[in-house]
């Protein structure tokens, strides 16, 4: 399974997936694309001898124009799976539809709770007892595609957004490589808008 990872920043999830693929002979990270030239994840990719590309937004460019250039960059890698790992751009409907069932994202909340940004602070403000992360198939509506796997963490009274984010991140690094593994083993698909694992919704 040819895995292409899209990032914008630190790339700790990218690292977890690279490390996971070392033990998973069915999947290989064949490329990393960033929209930010200074993303630390690009250094991680170089350290693992993985090819990288940057697709930087031009001034005044529309979303559809950017996504068309992104699609060209993606198609160059002929990926079987596109993994969004902290890729901080909203993608146009048309772009997303072109990769239906082949693109996954990780979001730092227990979806459907807290789509969008500042999820850790929102969980604290709401006095939630638990919080977590979700891996889901990407569909046109932001952070709303079918959930594949979630991990929960407790929220403590003394938590700040940063301490809570750290706890969630640890879980992200466990569940994201696992989902990539399932996909690479052909155990996972999106069927009729639902995530199906081993034939079970
Ligand atoms: C993670 O918190 C992920 O849930 C969100 O973006 C962050 C990326 O972190 N989508 P990293 O770049 O993988 O360290």
Topology overview:
Layout: E1 2-7, H1 12-22, E2 28-34, H2 40-47, E3 52-54, H3 63-75, E4 81-84, H4 93-98, E5 103-107, H5 119-125, E6 130-137, E7 147-154, H6 161-184, E8 188-191, E9 194-197
Parallel strand pairs: 1-2, 1-4, 2-3, 4-5
Antiparallel strand pairs: 5-6, 6-7, 8-9
Helix pairs in contact: 1-6, 5-6
Bound molecules: 5-O-phosphono-beta-D-ribofuranosylamine.
5-O-phosphono-beta-D-ribofuranosylamine binds at residues 7, 9-14, 85-86, 106-108, 133, 169, 172.
Catalytic activity: N(1)-(5-phospho-beta-D-ribosyl)glycinamide + (6R)-10-formyltetrahydrofolate = N(2)-formyl-N(1)-(5-phospho-beta-D-ribosyl)glycinamide + (6S)-5,6,7,8-tetrahydrofolate + H(+)
Function: Catalyzes the transfer of a formyl group from 10-formyltetrahydrofolate to 5-phospho-ribosyl-glycinamide (GAR), producing 5-phospho-ribosyl-N-formylglycinamide (FGAR) and tetrahydrofolate.
Protein name: Phosphoribosylglycinamide formyltransferase
């Amino acid at each position: 399974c040819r895995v292409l990872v899209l990032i914008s920043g630190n790339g700790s999830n990218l690292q977890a997936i690279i490390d996971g693929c070392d033990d998973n002979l069915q999947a290989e990270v064949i490329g990393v694309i960033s929209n930010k030239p200074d993303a630390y994840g690009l250094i991680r990719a170089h350290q693992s001898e993985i090819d990288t590309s940057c697709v930087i937004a031009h001034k005044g460019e529309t979303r559809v124009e950017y996504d068309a250039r992104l699609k060209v960059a993606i198609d160059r890698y002929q990926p079987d799976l596109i993994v969004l790992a902290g890729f901080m751009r909203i993608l146009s409907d048309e772009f997303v539809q072109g990769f239906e069932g082949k693109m996954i994202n990780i979001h730092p909340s227990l979806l459907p709770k807290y789509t969008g940004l500042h999820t850790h602070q929102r969980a604290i403000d709401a006095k939630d007892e638990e919080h977590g992360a979700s891996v889901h198939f990407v569909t046109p509506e932001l952070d709303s595609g079918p959930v594949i796997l979630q991990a929960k963490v407790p929220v403590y009274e003394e938590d700040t957004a940063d301490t809570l984010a750290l706890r969630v991140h640890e879980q992200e690094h466990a569940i994201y490589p696992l989902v990539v593994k399932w996909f690479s083993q052909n155990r996972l698909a999106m069927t009729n808008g639902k995530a199906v694992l081993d034939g079970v919704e």
